[in-house]
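Structure tokens please, single chain.
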Amino acid sequence: MNTPIVESLGYLLMLREENEAKAQKEDVERWISFLSAVNSHPEADPKAKNNFMKLIEPKMKNNSDINPIPQYETDIDLLKKLKEQQRGGK
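Here you go.
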């Protein structure tokens, strides 16, 4: 099923994933910049620093959110039977 609507939806999903990846990358860059700034001024209030760090820390997805790659098994006996049928067997 390769209709224009399916292709369009696939393209939109791809764009969404790219935008999410870009946003996550920007969050990580912002986090690194913050850590660099904090380390260059260590005399700041530690409690306020910790609260601020919790607010801007990027939200990382859990590994459970990621769909695992499906593992397929091949039925060798079925393949042999199909080859025999193609050759004109039974």
